[in-house]
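tool_call: predict_structure(chain=1)
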Amino acid sequence: MGNLEDRKERILNAKPETIGGFEVTELNTSDGFKFSLGKNGWLLIRFSGTEPIIRVYTETTAQDRVQAILDDGLRIAGLK
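tool_result:
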């Protein structure tokens, strides 16, 4: 799995052009790694501060793309 800093570096350097088929328009790193998908939503990869857990969340209006977005998030984090 690699150490925490290696994971964070991997995510930061991934620079995906698309996630779940949607264009990545911004990356905010203030509370994890939040990839904006424009008007289509976002993907957040966040490390727990108290446990060795990585959480991958999404919010989107495209219900049929939820799993694809989450799968891309897991790949970006090196978990899939």
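agent: The mean pLDDT is 94. Proceeding to next step.
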